[in-house]
Amino acid sequence: MRIVSWNVNGIRSVHTKGLFDPMIEALKPDILCLQETKANEDQSEIDLPDYEEYWNSAQKKGYSGTAIFTKEKPLSVVLDFPETIVKQFKLQDGYGDLNTEGRIIAMEFERFYMVDVYTPNSKGDLSRLPMRHEHWDPAFLAYCKELEKHKPIIFCGDLNVAHTEDDLANPKENEGEHGFTFEEREGVDKMIKSGFVDTFRTFKQGKGFYTWWSPWRTARERNIGWRLDYFFVSKDIVSRVTSAKIHAEILGSDHCPVSIDIDL
Known about the structure:
With 264 residues, this protein is α+β, with helices and mostly antiparallel strands. The chain has a single domain (2-262), classed as 4-Layer Sandwich (Deoxyribonuclease I, Chain A). It contains 6 helices and 16 strands. A 6-stranded mixed β-sheet has the order 3-4-2-1-16-15, with no helix packed on it. A 6-stranded mixed β-sheet has the order 5-8-9-10-14-11. The protein is globular and about 45 Å long. The N and C termini lie close together (7 Å).
């Protein structure tokens, strides 16, 4: 099984550029998880007859959003955090209610749960960092651990953080900036400590592997980027992951797709 994750930064934009279908042809995903769709399902002209489509769009038009396209129909689908998580972690701030921003889709399959996530950006002035660090990251981890009580978890998406100094080209210059603060990185540390495994790092170590590039100053051409997009799996199934890749050659967004092949 191949699972692909891609922050498309506007699914209508990628489709208009003629770059969505070529990605499908190149990667042939069994499950495709998208983030930052910025559209409702009825606004998309994507037509993939081999896939079931599930969308979670933000209440705010043209903002955020996730979607999953899957060849196998899931046993169940849950959009957003369940009410128990919302009550426990209080997910509202001055920007609004995070649970109305279309950031999570969880699917149950026979052997695993699949979770697609678009983690909120802490903002350039770090004004959303307290919400992310104290509420969102703990809420997401608690939700995944609750699902994991029943079946192994695969979660993927744009986590909006470079975890280590190897995950961005210029760590010293960006220390403390949004996407590379201690608090954001600690969120990933806690995921790993709780037993989830960063699949890409089981295959590749070191610098130079990035999934997002600034649109300015030919950053992508020079590979001056950040690794913000991840696949994590429960440690019980990490041995079943046969590859984890970054597809930097695929264009259409400021992010590139990432994928895993897994034998379940």
